[in-house]
Write a structure and sequence with these properties.
Number of helices of chain A: 17
Number of helices of chain B: 13
Oligomer: heterodimer
Strand content of chain B: 5-15%
Order of helices and strands of chain B: EHEHHHHEHEHHHHHHH
Strand content of chain A: under 5%
Structural class of chain B: alpha+beta
Number of strands of chain B: 4
Distance between the termini of chain B: 113 Å
Largest interface: A-B, 12 and 13 residues
Shape of chain A: globular
Largest sheet of chain A: none
Number of strands of chain A: 0
Radius of gyration of chain B: 43 Å
Chain lengths: 396, 379
């Protein structure tokens, strides 16, 4: 409305000190536990490493997806907060580092890496042209490479715009985004198939890539929402940022909670209906012993609680509710990844222990440390973006 | 103008921002009876007008949840209680398969209930007599203008003050809206010529389209392709075989599975000699025999098998089954008569299964014994 500024006055501020401190504390505590776990239970640690990789990849590539989605859809409301997604996306650079430990423990994690098993198994030998260590390595390098490349190209233009105010950079980023989207769809599908679905190499599910994508974009949106609302309450964004912006975050969270449930249920329903042994095996594993309680809990944690938590209009605008629900959704996504990973490690149920806690802490710490590092170097707001003013003045 | 009553003073604005500012101003001035009309829902209007939360979502929720459980109940009742059928090897109560339908019915019932409640109850449909209807103001706000209308029965209403307020807000086309007393009680007539003609045209059009679709269109290609199938149709000549029959008769001497042909054709003596009743005289078998006897035998032989036919005079009277001859027959001999018939009595092999025939034999024995009881029966 008329009371918003015509000229954008942005002065760079340091992030709140407890925000930074918490990030470092979680990082250090997590790192200690992670290193300790390597000596105590190497196999369990390796499986937790897969969870760490998938969670951090979710946040990183999901944030990149939201940046790209903003450029492609021409959205203006999210422009003031695009840098939050850009900072979160920087975790893509550390993906290779956290993928390495898992890579060196492949024999413990992936059944299909055992040559003698593959030879005596009809299914595995039929899948061998795809599921073999050299090709797996190439694929992982290519996928992470694509993400890092496009992240680098898009954010470079975005940073450059801060000083040059060149509108053509936006146009360039739109073109880059259009190229990225099909690559993103393929890469995230095969990344999920490689690192999560191949934990159970006999299993078939054609919808699995979409399932991981649904969780990914939801988790990334939750991370962005949490940071935006926290910083906005402390005055890091502009006066004009109000309920209308919050409502957009809340509506996207709510929408993708439903999207996740829709995809998860579709996967289950088709497998349940067809009742083919090579498909049902995955769900049967998750219905044996304690895992049954995990499966039931997943429905509540990932769908029913966030659904009712975000259903009413006022709850999509309330900063308190949004912060709680976005943390909850991040937890739900970690739980989801655990539900996908851990039944391979331990059948008939399992109790999360300090190793998983350590990895979770490490994931949070890692993301926050990378975020702080980016935030200390760059502006928190894309001051040169031509859509910024319209974004601040956005009303539903 | 004398009989016209002032309803409200209206003003038009060009942008949604202006109308929100205007609504906020009018609200803060203390007016209570005003309304805003816009071509589409303007976000932020409820807070500008300080409207309370709409109660419509509760209708949606209650009806939606009711619809969901109705769908669940319906599927449970039909699929697992009233007519249980195994479908795809799933349990009778196959909950995952019901979820999509429950979802659809929830959405359908909730949305229909919301729209109907909104139009019928909140908007008081049809509400033909609202003074704002059919005015230039309403025409504008239905297209591209944003209007505010401050009602004259507002306690703070003062024509000049409201006019200057609207002017100060930058409103255009500030117009008073009048209505007549009789307009308020206007009821549209049902048998107005226009309406009647429209109804007749509608009726004719729907009838014509229905007639053409069902009687003409369905018989044009490609819609008639399904009718021309080379399949066997009951009671019709089939072109597949030379004799024109659709079904083949079994090869001579074919024996059905688990069903040997009757060995004693035209040989009652052998039947009486070799056949033995396989059924025990249990209550179950006897009551089956009674039921079948009453249906098939009693019309001629009588309920008590005394030959007292209900059809006396129309058919030759059958013999009593209490004669010494029949009493002395073996079970197999009676069975043979039921199977092949005797004299005027036809075969009952098609009406009665083998088991039922033996059950009837048991019942006849019981009837015979009732008239010619043995000494030992009385003890």
């Amino acid at each position: 409305m008329s009371d918003s500024p015509d000229v954008i006055n942005y002065t760079k501020k340091e992030l709140p000190s407890n925000f930074v401190k918490f990030g470092y504390a979680a990082f250090v505590a997590g790192l200690v536990l992670v290193i300790l776990s390597l000596f105590v239970d190497n196999v369990r640690s390796a499986f937790s490493g897969v969870m760490l990789l998938m969670f951090v990849a979710s946040i990183g590539v999901g944030s990149l997806f939201w940046i790209v989605a903003e450029y492609l859809s021409g959205a203006v409301w999210s422009t003031p907060f695009r840098r939050v997604a850009e900072f979160l996306g920087a975790v893509l650079f550390v993906l290779p580092v956290i993928a390495l430990p898992a890579y060196f423990n492949m024999h413990d994690i992936f059944h299909w890496t055992h040559q003698e098993v593959v030879k005596s198994d009809h299914y595995l030998s039929a899948k061998a042209p795809y599921l073999n260590v050299p090709f797996f390595t190439i694929r992982s390098i290519v996928f992470i490479g694509i993400w890092v490349l496009f992240y680098y190209l898009i954010t470079k233009n975005s940073r450059l715009q801060d000083s040059t105010k060149d509108q053509n950079l936006t146009r360039k980023n739109i073109k880059l985004s259009a190229v990225f989207v099909p690559l993103f769809a393929l890469s995230i599908t095969f990344f999920a198939i490689d690192w999560l679905m191949s934990l159970e190499p006999h299993w078939f599910s054609t919808i699995f890539g979409v399932y991981y994508f649904a969780g990914t974009v939801l988790a990334a949106m939750a991370a962005i929402t949490y940071i935006v609302v926290t910083l906005s309450e402390k005055g890091y964004f502009f006066e004009g940022v109000k309920a209308d912006h919050y409502y957009s975050f809340g509506a996207l969270l709510f929408g993708f909670v439903n999207f996740w449930a829709y995809i998860a249920f579709s996967q289950f329903l088709l497998i349940w209906y067809a009742n083919l042994p090579e498909e049902t095996i995955w769900y049967l594993q998750r219905w044996e012993g304690y895992w049954m309680y995990f499966s039931i809990a997943l429905i509540f944690i990932h769908f029913i609680i966030p659904y009712f938590g975000l259903l009413a209009q006022p709850s999509k605008m309330s900063p308190k509710r949004l912060k709680f629900m976005s943390l909850w959704i991040l937890f739900a996504h970690f739980f989801d990844i655990m539900w996908m990973t851990m039944p391979t490690y331990q059948e008939f149920g399992y109790i999360p222990g300090w190793i998983e806690l350590g990895y979770a802490l490490f994931a949070i710490g890692l993301i926050l440390v990378v975020f702080n590092w980016k935030a200390s170097k760059e502006n928190l707001v894309p001051v040169g973006d031509p859509k910024l003013k319209r974004g601040i003045n956005f009303r539903l | 103008m004398s009989d016209k009553i002032l309803y409200s003073l209206t003003g038009l604005f060009d942008t949604p921002d202006e109308i929100i500012a205007a609504a906020e101003k009018v609200q803060s001035e203390g007016y209570t009876k005003y309304d805003v009309n816009t071509p589409y829902p303007v976000h932020g209007m409820d807070s500008a007008m300080k409207l309370p939360m709409s109660r419509l979502p509760y209708v949606a929720m209650v009806v939606g949840i009711t619809g969901m459980f109705l769908a669940l109940f319906f599927m449970w009742w039909t699929n697992s209680v009233d007519y249980p059928l195994v479908i795809g090897g799933k349990p009778y109560f196959a909950f995952p398969a019901y979820v999509p339908i429950m979802f659809e019915v929830t959405v359908l019932s909730a949305s229909i209930a919301t729209v109907v409640t909104m139009i019928a109850i909140v908007f008081k449909f049809p509400n033909n007599s609202h003074p704002l209807m059919d005015t230039e103001y309403m025409k504008n706000v239905s297209v591209d203008k944003y209007g505010i209308s401050i009602a004259a029965d507002d306690p703070k209403f003062d024509f000049d003050k409201v006019k200057s307020l609207l002017e100060s807000l930058g409103a255009k086309n500030i117009t008073p809206i009048y209505y007549k007393e009789e307009d308020l009680n206007f009821k549209p007539k049902t048998f107005e010529p226009k309406f009647v003609i429209a109804m007749i045209v509608l009726f004719a059009a729907v009838s014509a389209v229905t007639y053409i679709t069902l009687n003409k269109l369905m018989y044009l290609p490609p819609f008639d392709w399904m009718m021309e199938q080379s399949k066997v149709i009951a009671q019709e000549r089939s072109d597949v075989f030379e004799d024109g029959r659709g079904m083949r008769t079994p090869v001579e001497g074919t024996v059905a599975r688990g069903f040997l042909p009757y060995k004693f054709k035209n040989n009652p003596e052998a039947a009486g000699k070799y056949l033995v009743n396989p059924l025990a005289a249990t209550e179950e078998n006897l009551s089956l025999g009674e039921k079948k006897f009453d249906i098939y035998c009693s019309p001629c032989h009588g309920y008590l098998a005394e030959g007292d036919s209900r059809l006396k005079g129309q058919f030759p009277s059958p013999p009593s089954l209490h004669s010494k001859k029949v009493r002395n027959w073996s079970d197999g001999r009676i069975y043979h008569v039921i199977t092949e018939g005797q004299n005027a009595m036809p075969s009952y092999a098609y009406q009665l299964s083998r088991k039922e025939r033996w059950a009837v034999v048991l019942y006849i024995r019981a009837l015979q014994r009732s008239l010619n009881a043995k000494e030992s029966d009385l003890q």
